[in-house]
Amino acid sequence: MKPYLILILSLFVGILSLPGCSTQTAHRDSSLAQNADNLKILKYKAMNGDDEAAWIVFQHYALGIRNVAEAEKWLGIAAKHGNAKAKRYMEIRSKQSIQQ
């Protein structure tokens, strides 16, 4: 193996062993990814007060395609529109961060 590959691999393993870094990976769930047309419709509905549409868009970004920044945005919109699942998710996550 080339020396630079060994160095890169060593650095990667070292970073994963740091506190707070997990070797477990959250996997994508492609069944939650929406096609472009559905996503456009869902976003329109969500921006017009449909809390369930916002929750579905959140799931698309959080678990379907793994875009954390967009997921957070849509989670907030879902909660703002009163989606119980979004509110509960945020509550549980908040409690977990306090306990750590």
Chain-wise SSE layout:
Elements: H1 3-16, H2 36-47, H3 51-64, H4 68-80, H5 84-99
Helix pairs in contact: 2-3, 3-4, 4-5
Architecture overview:
The protein contains 5 helices and no strands. The protein has helices spanning 3-16, 36-47, 51-64, 68-80, 84-99. The radius of gyration is 18 Å and the shape is flat. It has one domain (28-99). The model is unreliable at 9-25 (pLDDT under 50). It is mainly α. Helix content is 69%, strand content 0%.
Average of pLDDT: 80
Radius of gyration (CA) equals 18 Å
Helix count from the secondary structure assignment: 5
Alpha carbon gap, first and last residue: 40 Å
Beta strand %: under 5%
Structural class of the helices, strands and pairings? mainly alpha
Order of helices and strands: HHHHH
Number of DSSP E strands: 0
Helix content: 55-70%
Q: How many strands, which pairing sense, and closed or not: the largest β-sheet?
A: none
Query: What's the number of domains?
Result: 1
How would you concisely characterize the structure shown here?
The protein is mainly α and 100 residues long. It has five helices and no strands. The radius of gyration is 18 Å and the shape is flat.
What key phrases describe this protein's structure?
100 residues; mainly alpha; 5 helices
